[in-house]
Amino acid sequence: MSASGGPSGGPSLARRLLQLYVGLALYGASAALQLRAGLGLAPWDVLNQGVARHTGISIGAASIAIGALVLLLWIPLRQRPGLGTVSNVLVIGLALDATLSVVPDPRSLWLRIPLLGFSVVLCAVATGLYISARFGPGPRDGLMTGLHRRTGRSVRLVRTCIEVVVLATGFALGGSVGAGTVFYALAIGPLSQFFLRRFALPERTAPAPAAPSGEKVPDLV
User: Fold this and answer.
1) Residue 163 and residue 141: Cα distance in Å, rounded?
2) Which of 4, 30, 109, 114 has the maximum number of C-beta atoms within 10 A of its C-beta?
3) Cβ pair 78, 146 in contact under 8 A
4) Positive or negative CA dihedral for 57, 63, 69, 72?
5) What pLDDT sits at residue 204?
6) What's phi and psi for 39, nearest 5 deg?
7) Which residues span the membrane (predicted)?
8) Minimal CA–CA distance to 181: which of 52, 47, 28?
């Protein structure tokens, strides 16, 4: 067994689980910090906030409920959830509410602007962590890839359409849209790509075949 815990050089299950749940918890915390910055939310959080305002539930509970509803859309798309998918629905919403309960609203704009920047970077870090753990996509990412396969449209087009519909619906429900929304949309892609590479786990490799009857297996270059 390798030092990393996998029988053929792959990462250990414990490491992957730690990376998954730390990433999801940080993702929820980043959403809460962006909310506290008060300069505009990410599209799905605009929808979460709008639903929360009309139902009287917390924004974290709204996130869980919407995530569960999105999972139902996987059924006709023939998507299969994994541990990471279900954990995504629950952990992010719980972490979001927990962070809001301990982080106060900053009154100064000079505090809110750096808080916004920090929250978006933290979101990218969290994205790199939990996606690299390879326990299955989140419900929203799975909806995107499922629609991509069923419609034949590009991932970029499908994602853009989903985000526009979600943002417009959330805004109509009273969710917060502002400069932070635009900043998130422009920055999250490049930042997430960077941290996905930073936190990528080594792939598990197949064991070398046994040499028959004393023959030497040549080295592969």
Assistant:
1) 11
2) 30
3) yes
4) negative
5) 63
6) -115, 10
7) 20-37, 57-75, 82-103, 109-133
8) 47
What is the CA 100 to chain-centroid distance, rounded?
Answer: 19
pLDDT band for position 207 (cuts 50, 70, 90):
low
Alpha helices in the chain (DSSP H): 13-37, 43-55, 59-72, 74-77, 83-102, 109-132, 139-151, 155-172, 179-198
Looking at residue 4, the DSSP 8-state letter turns out to be T
Phi, psi of 174 (to 5 degrees): 100, 15
In total, the chain counts a number of residues equal to: 221
Report whether 204 contacts 1 (CB < 8 A): no
What is the dihedral angle through the alpha carbons of 173, 187, 123, 68, rounded to the nearest 10 degrees?
40
pLDDT at residue 137, rounded to an integer: 85
Residue type, 99: T
Q: Decide: 142 and 85 in contact? Cβ < 8 Å.
A: yes
11: β partners: 5
Nearest CA among 115, 139, 134, 138 for reference residue 31: 115
Q: 3-class SS at 200?
A: coil
Residue among 135, 128, 117, 95 nearest 199 (CA): 128
How far is Cα 59 from Cα 64, in angstroms, rounded to an integer?
Answer: 9
Beta-carbon neighbour count of residue 40 at 10 Å? 21
- Which amino acid type is present at position 14? A
Looking at the predicted structure, is the pLDDT value of residue 70 above 60?
yes
